[in-house]
Fold these 2 entries.
Entry 1:
Amino acid sequence: MSSTNNNNNNNKSNINSHPVGRSRSQLPTPKAKKYDRQLRLWGDHGQQAIEQARVLLIGANAVGTETLKNMVLPGVGSFTIMDHRRVTEEDCGSNFFVELARIGEPRAKVCAELLRELNEDVIGDFLEDRLDVLLQRDPGFFTGFSLVIASGVRHSDLLVLSDLLYDRDVPLIVCQQHGMLATCQLVAREHFVWEAHPDNPLPDLRLENPLPEFVAFCDAQDLSAMDSQRHSHTPWLVILYKFLSKWRQANAGKFPSNYAERQAVRQLIRSGERGESDLHGDEENWRQAQSAVTTALLPSKLPSNVNELFKLADQFWLRRQQLSDSSAPSEDRQAAVPPSNWLLLCRTLAEFYRQRGCLPLCGTLPDMVSDSDRYVALLNIYRRAADADLVEFSRLLRVVCLDIGLSADSVPASQIALFCKNARHLRLVKTASYRELSRPLPQTVARCLEETAEAGPSPFWWYLLFHACDRFHTEFGRFPGDTDDVNFLADAGQLKLKCQQLAQDWLASLATTSAAGPTSAPEDLLHELCRFGRAEVHSVAAWMGGVLSQEGIKLITGQFVPETRTMLYDAVSQTFLPVF
Amino acid sequence: SSPGTDNRWRHVRRLLERAGPLGGPEFEPDPELFSAIRSDLVQILVVGAGGLGCEMLKDLALSGFVNLHLIDMDTIDLSNLNRQFLFRPKDIGRPKAVVAAEFVERRVSGCRVTPHFGKLEDKPLEFYKQFMCIVCGLDSVQASVIPLIDGGTQGFQGHCRVVRAHATPCLECTADLYSSTQQGFPLCTLAHTPRLPEHCIEFARIMQWPQEWPFGEEVPVDGDDPHHVDWIRTEACKRARQFGIREPDFRLTQGVVKHIIPAVASTNAVISAQCVTEVFKAITGCYPLLNNFANFSDIEGVAVNVVPLERNPQCDVCGQPPPKPLTFNSRDSLQTVINQLKSEHGMTRPSLTACVEGRDVTLYMDLSFLRDQLADNLDKSLAELGLLSNTVLNVTDSAQSGMKPVTFVLNLEDGMET
């Protein structure tokens, strides 16, 4: 064992002069220290994306400011708050980013200040404009952001806002709170997930078509001739391969295709164990080899998410080809605009798959009981093969780029490497526009109404009621129950009417005019909503703020998979369920 | 009440003053309820002023509670600032509980936060008795009679649970749920067959460090000292090079040495908020409580899952049925109690201990020499022995070996209560 005794003798008595080896010291910067706990989750590149992001918050209410708080703390580049209201006493009982002393000041200004001081790295400003006015006067303002959060914004404004953002690929997060309930929805035409970070990914071993270097490595090992030390430290991958080969030879070269066949391989492995009477007793590596059979021998097939990407890429190229073939001037903005990097990469991936019959090798291996030299050797074999696939992939990418008139270096090398490493888990996530999402299909509505008739209060009813509340607000200038009047339930009648009208609107185009199930919300729910009077219960807002901020970070970094369904948080039952 | 109270707390008061069909089974809205939760009767303890504690403090303050206590033994570190939002760079080095209390009192006027800078374990049992509810950011408080709301997070996952004595599992029952993230690598792997950068790091920390004492004889590894961590990294890299293993960087090294758990503001916000919603329900009764364990994960989509955990009947801590009441007069002697234990509770040679003024006291042991030593107690009255109503007595029977203690609770018809 090497030692640093020489250094140590000189420095033992002098604690202040630290013995540092020859390698460059990598003491973290203050910023790396501050963000240490989160860097371990999304990496330096994820952090960079966050620091380049510009976020717009419309609605400096409890949910809005809580969402923004959890983006300012991790270091979002900049934020802008838009809110035309002034700080009220009520705000001081639900919003952490206002103060009693500042009642009467513009809410956007106060919240921006108190949020900004959470993190000196973040730039923040505010606007007091009314949303509907600015949407008319300066629509371009909104499309300059990486992400827009609309909290408690009325339906009519959301329609205009979403139409504006949707085609420009600026993701939008919409949320509303009523007391103990809150809904949310992501709206994004297209969002590419670069790194899904799956919980338990299957290892990428290529056992169906083993790497030549791997085969040579395994062939050079004779299990029966090994001493007990070597035998009990042979990596399971080698063991598995050897017995797999044995089985394949005895079965006309086919690959195990069902449970029984995989079990047969497992039995073969078991027969090779030396048992516990041996000197070194524990043959854990042999046990690992047997358990690995379940996951390592699954036939590899193209994941459906990747197949979808291939189709998208091919469609895009086909359209582009058709347009360039036609003599008419191209009016299709999609085709004229150069494809985004992910499309270029997906097109390349499809090409790679067509040529090679597999995706680029991931290159990592799970840990396994082994001696150092053989595990390291295996890692190197897989790493080299992955590197070779990456080189090949990059070459194909250059051809794809040049082919459509783009420079060969259109995609940075680090992005290519990230893409290949995560090839099996890539996916495109998309939602319809807010306009479509907030007007569910009649079939969907009919189904939901039917379901809730039996099951009782459901997220769908609440969602319907939220929209009914919006209509109530449009007509009466306040929300149902949002009054000091002891007779707050008087609003329930009007709310019920609005709810019925809305349900009928949504069902209107159904061929069968007799709607399945009731179109009037259960009395209980009407009553409860009036009781809330659109109260902003802080702990409920904080919960939603936590969820939405991470959804925002997913959209900004392209890491982890966003929730795309319309969701309802019910703090009474502590459930978070899809509305439809 | 200040002029600001009426409108300011409208959000919370709606829940407390207006009837609703979906409320708790025994909930009755009442205009006095809001002032009641702000009275001295309602004291809440938050355990931990870190990632969860800061969030919980804010959420409790904005739920209308005004008597909050906060206990934490740590001081503020730079790496806390990405999520422990009550702290600023200028606060580094100061006690977390103190700074958090200051901030919230300033921001939410009317809210009183009493900080306790110290260890939970150092507090006497009485300390807990003043609280109507305890909220944890740590898994270290023994379940007592009052409801305990516990939350925990790791990266993008977390949980929130409600613990009520005798109704739900206690923390001990489900201790195995909290799997340790400690990476215990076998020593032979570290010494002879390292494969991963982590093995090289642990070898340097566990084996090389105490051989070389790089910062002085017997000076232990301080994971917070970057020079210590860098020494370990350097040695780990040398070893890695020797074996052809990928060399660890500083971040990985410190992570292994300190068993760092990744953390972000968002997950802490979610779990804390969920906990405080449950605290609000527990104290006001406005809605039924979470029954009783909620999981959260937002790695893929967002998943919330509620599970009604069942008590572990073998649990050492709570596997007992509720304590049976023993009714006496404070002037009755200990002998009277023992007689009743024999005649009505099937005991032959009962031995009793009780918690008196915060300490466990052996009242009587029907066992060899102790019988004589404690014989004087038999004639003493319960009052003389310092026993009050609600004192819990733990009784074993020396005639039944291996018997688990049975708990009784004293009910003194004339006596004072604990």
Entry 2:
Amino acid sequence: MVSQLYDKTLSFRTPFTPNQKPHKQKRKKSKSSTHRHRHRYRASMAEDLVLDTAIRDWVLIPLSVVMVLIGILRYFVSKLMRSSQVPDPKIVKEGQVIVRARNLRAGANFISPKSFRARRVYFCNEENGLLHVPKGQAQNAQAQMFSDPNMAMDMMKKNLSMIIPQTLTFAWVNFFFSGFVAAKIPFPLTQRFRSMLQNGIDLSTVDVSYVSSRSW
Amino acid sequence: MVTKTEETQLNRLENQVDNGGGGAWEYLCLVKKLKVRRPDKVLRHGLSILNDPKKRSALGPDVWTLYEQVSIAAMDCQCLDVAKDCIKVLQKQFPESKRVGRLEGILLEAKGLWAEAEKAYSSLLEDNPLDPVLHKRRVAIAKAQGNFPTAIEWLNKYLETFMADHDAWRELAEIYVSLQMYKQAAFCYEELILSQPTVPLYHLAYADVLYTLGGVENILLAKKYYASAIDLTGGKNTKALFGICLCSSAIAQLTKGRNKEDKESPELQSLAAAALEKDYKQRAPAKLLLLTSALKSLKTS
């Protein structure tokens, strides 16, 4: 009998009812009823909850589809917002110098020793060698990143484009899909995850493996 | 450098398209990818596609790259009206574009109006100082005018920034050789060998320059590079074989007065001579007599 009661409370046939209020009232009833029987079915907590297939059809699949679509949307938005970077002559030259130095190292056995030595001096000469960086001047890469205004702007834009869709999705999911169990995680979890994963469910005795849709 | 498979594919497509089969668009794409110079074919087949509105719309957004390719081919064949029409179409579509500006500059060059072309390129370079193609076009103007020192100057300045561009090094080496500045040409060829050590062409050219410079050390070095060229081509390079024979005889002549023993064994020269004779017997038996007499004179001198 207890398990039957449990079945009824958990099978929400139509999650998308236009009228949210009776939905919530139903839940409150179940809550009070479970409180009375709490001591009784603590023992039967181990048994499995039967989740309605309607949950799977109407919640999991749309939610996954929406996640994928938002990922795609984020990609396109980031492509639009990406500002074309004007190549800095110094950076281009440095890149090319590195390629040339690498070629010198790789192909050193193919040219005469005199010319190899001449080129090595050209690159590593103490005073004006191309690759020689005097001790005090080597800049910290991170400091350079923050001092360059363009790059800082780019980073901020990227962060924003990540945060805004996340908050929107969160609010949307919260509005539509709160208050019921959505899925069961196949591996056992500790009690600490309860507040994370079971946000909309106000029953404190439900096994932590059952998660609400917010965690999805 | 075009690999062998790509070359065979290109030839096959060329034959197919020339004989009336389809596949003109694939041929044009392959030509563009490999950067080979086939202006007459590109012009003919490209125009056949562009003049047919059905085929044009079938290409979609690629039609603009086709316009660019055909306009450059037209300028190569000196059909300047065709080129001008293509550029006009591109201009209407992309009004303020860098690439179209470049094409207009090339058109001015093709017409022979060097001063205007130079002005156009300088103004474009002010906006994008790091565009390698614009720099190279400027060098091409100077070279076409016969003004080699200016060309060398521009090219050196370009190479100061873009020093990993092996095409530019090759161009510089050829200009130096044409001006007989062999030491500088040797430096450029060394750069090329460093960046692409498995291309036998550069070894051969470097060996030629070294041999021309003269002096025992250079000729010894040249012999080594001829040998490496033979190694890289699997023994088929006739020029390198001849080079070895010449180097050996030159070394023998230069070290005649010294009492040193022969450092280099004479095996290499005899091997090279034997390989040459075999090659000539196979490919040009009529000239075999000439070859044997020339080799004999080399050995005895």
